[in-house]
Amino acid sequence: MRQTPLLKVEGLSICFGLPGASIEVVHDVSFELAPGRTLALVGESGSGKTLTGKAVMGLLPRGARVSAGRVLLQRPDGPVDLLRQSPAVMRQIRGAQVSMIFQEPMSAFSALHTVGSQISEVLRVHGMCDAAEARKRALDMLAEVGCPDAARAYAAYPFELSGGLRQRAMIAMAMIGAPRLVIADEPTTALDVTTQAVVLDLLRRVSRDHGLATVLITHDLGVVANMADEVVVLRRGMVVERGEASAVLTHPGHSYTKRLIDAAPRVPESIAVHAPPERDDILTVDGLSKTYPGRHRSFGRPASPVYALSDFSMRLERGRTVAVVGESGSGKSTVAKLILRAELPDPGATIRFNPRDGQPMDVTSLAGERLTEFRRKAQMVFQDPFAALSPRMSVQDILTEPLVIHGLGTRSERRERAAWLMARVGLSPDHLGRFPHAFSGGQRQRIAIARALALKPELLVLDEPTSALDVSVQAEVLELMGELEGELGLSYLFISHNLAVVAALADHVMVMRRGRVVEEGAPDCIFNDPRHPYTRALIAASPEPDMHRRLDLTAVACGAGEPNTWPEPFGYNGEAAPQLIEVAPGHRVRRAA
Amino acid sequence: MEHYVAPDRGHDADLDRQALDRADLDAPTRVLVWRRFRRHRLGVLCLIILALGYAILPFVEILSPYNPNDFDENNIYAPPQGLYLFHEGAYVGLHTYPTATVYDMETGLVKRVTDRSDPLPVPVLTTCGEPYHLFGFIEGRFRVICPPEDGELFLIGSDRLGRDMFSRMVHGARLSMTVGLIGVVVSFTIGLILGGLAGYFGGWCDAAVSRAIEIFRSLPELPIWLALSAAVPVNWGPVSVFVMISIILGLLDWPGLARAVRSKFLALREEDYVRAAELMGAKPSRIIWRHMMPNFMSHLIASASLSIPAMILGETALSFLGLGLRPPAVSWGMMLNDALNLSAVEIYPWLLMPMVPVIFAVLAFSFVGDALRDALDPYS
């Protein structure tokens, strides 16, 4: 017998703008959700997944309006249409029957109140119990979502908690009113991958224990595979495919779903072993460290210094790719800044850049002419394509600017070069007269790559070049980078937080944690034979669109914590880190001997 | 749930890659800003009003029926006169009625009595009165509206010397409206240079400028204004005094602007496109002029348009206290100087009329500034 659905969305359409001149952003979306099940709304940016979720909560942004459809929530006294309730009724429903988990817990909590008071507030506004009881229930709930010290978390302000703990508190707040439906809007997107694995597991456990129905809004098919019973794939506001998660993920019917699944980065099963290199290094880095002094205060002692990067060494062979992988705070972006001389390293470091023709350069001591020459040969691609292009310059100006700075070519030669660059990164030269804001993220990133190529550099530093992009676009951009590397003889330093993303491009992978490399080696060593608990945690935590490969939480738990929680012989306290030890040719792990 | 698959129309990767994501934003930023600004009805209206206002400033002589310093000892404190088209139900053209001064024996006050039986035709678009010098050298007597042949035309009354308030108000606009512009240019120049230095170079330069800003902002504004304007030599001509007053206003206004410039510079320095230009090897001057300036000029224009009203009010306040502009120059503040005498205001309330254009000008600049500020980020 089929269960009565708890939530039934029928023919939901949402428009922006006034009647008559409106743009429909969600078109005829229907799905239903039975109690206790998890349904994932999957789509890329602009697919309307978040708007659909907000419409259910009655939280549409200003200017958006439901133009058709019903959202029926089953209540004990029969179904009610959430779209046609008065604000007062909706307030009763929100928190008590339907609640929401937001992407950014920092902005979803008020910074002026303690986490605990905000959680127990849910109970008080619904008049469910008195203050003392509310406090007790909030503490219980915080303990249930895995806060190690519930009383401390209760009394803490949101900024005192780590990202993972904040998201746990967010879940506690969503759960405290004992709702029957939770809408989770990208609940783990802002988190590091190891934290994401833990929070996803928590969400799954909590919704199972409480018999909750969950609408999970996400762009990540890997998350879907780990969480969802049912999937609705959205594209440009329309349902592309809908069904049981196992059916959709293993036998996708629509070409768009297939593309999404194919584009998702995976940790490779096996990797061909690279031929041992004949050493022609374009970049040699030794003993690179960066300490930021504590902030100067007007009075009193300065704050203690921050060790962003400690004793980093690497070799980048010409025409190859070294990937530096780590979570936030690992020091990976500092590596990029130091190598490109955006900042100076602590004394004692050597960075040797060895161009194809010409003298080797010591990057740390370059000045004047030589620095300009280095700038010409080493370029950078930034993470956020929306911030990397000046909104006041046309694409033409953006692409010719590097040539103008270095005084290369005549006006018409520069224009030709710009057109060639556009074509090379897969965009039509007709776009040259346009401005960045007309383009999508992927297109902008292509333009940013074209700009970096304008000076015919030999070394490209890619700082998370795809992490702001949609999955299908990410796959295309990675493919483009692969082509360019071979064709133009480029060497890449690829910085990413995602191990799976670098798998296709990297010739050498370095895994970083808290300013130190913990493991490095060829991709086959790292992916097939990871030795360090942290590398293992990273691999285990990265979700993939495969129903049979669930997140391995024991591995995550073992390696994801601070260095002092790692098992022997890997763990260490403070700055007393052990050395990197070669465990196999080219494969080095930081562990005690 | 049964497995539903939408009709599959296939997918053209190349076409997808070229398609503009935001075709609605396919234009240069200034066009986008203008489009967004246009949506702000009140802002557009105020912009039109201000543009018209500034457009007529060179031609105020033609618009006013009298010259600003023409006085008429027979018509001291004449009340506002109406303009009419119909006399006793019949159309007789633009006309007004003569007023006579009557001495009230009981109260001892001078009263003005309007004679409703005798319409005086008001000539329009003709020559009359004392000659004026348009732009300082074109002599003319042509005016849009003239007083009737044997009568007076005080549209909003006359002051203690029998000068026409309306003509003086129109002439006063010239100084009162431009004092803000000159002041803003001065404060802009200082603010831009100091704020830019502080924001771009940081370090001790930033510290010095920031402290200077704080000190300037902590000074009590009014006494400093008063002291500085009192220091303007008495024997200076009206034009020099006017320029001096504008500069004084600008000198005291720059800290706010410098602070805005500094914080904008600090924010822009962290932008990836500025960092990209640095990593390309661009020199600081190129980074400032090509990358940072275009991106914050609009913010500056918005903050400038919000600080012009403060200048207009400042001039009004100074002249009201008798320390601003000096006769024979005319400004709104100077006209209000007559309103210092409370009993005069009580009997002749039209002395307060110059407040009306002050209020309108300040409001118009504020609305335009607000609309501009809203339009500055047109990319969403």
UniProtKB/TrEMBL annotation, chain A:
Cellular location(s): Cell inner membrane
Any one GO CC term of the record: plasma membrane
Membrane protein topology class: Peripheral membrane protein
Record-linked SMART domains: AAA
GO BP terms in the entry: peptide transport; transmembrane transport
Pfam families: ABC_tran (PF00005), oligo_HPY (PF08352)
Keywords noted in UniProt: ATP-binding, Nucleotide-binding, Transport
Domain ABC transporter: start-end pairs: 7-261, 283-539
Gene3D superfamilies: P-loop containing nucleotide triphosphate hydrolases
Listed SUPFAM superfamilies: P-loop containing nucleoside triphosphate hydrolases
Molecular functions (GO terms): ATP binding; ATP hydrolysis activity
Keyword Transport attributed: yes
Domain of life: Bacteria
Entry annotated with the keyword Transport: yes
PROSITE patterns: ABC_TRANSPORTER_1 (PS00211), ABC_TRANSPORTER_2 (PS50893)
Similarity comment text for this entry: Belongs to the ABC transporter superfamily.
Protein known as: ABC transporter ATP-binding protein
Organism name: Thermohalobaculum xanthum
TrEMBL record, chain B:
Source organism of the structure: Thermohalobaculum xanthum
Protein name (Swiss-Prot/TrEMBL): ABC transporter permease
Localization of this protein: Cell membrane
One GO term (biological process): transmembrane transport
Residue ranges crossing the lipid bilayer per the database entry: 42-63, 83-103, 175-202, 222-252, 300-327, 347-368
Gene3D superfamilies assigned: MetI-like
Alphabetical list of SUPFAM superfamilies matching this protein: MetI-like
Source superkingdom: Bacteria
Any Pfam family the entry gives: OppC_N
GO cellular component: plasma membrane
Key words of the record: Membrane, Transmembrane, Transmembrane helix, Transport
InterPro entries, per the entry: MetI-like, MetI-like_sf, OppC_N
Domain ABC transmembrane type-1 intervals: 173-369
Family listed: Belongs to the binding-protein-dependent transport system permease family.
Main location: membrane
Membrane topology: Multi-pass membrane protein
Keyword Zinc included in the entry's annotation: no
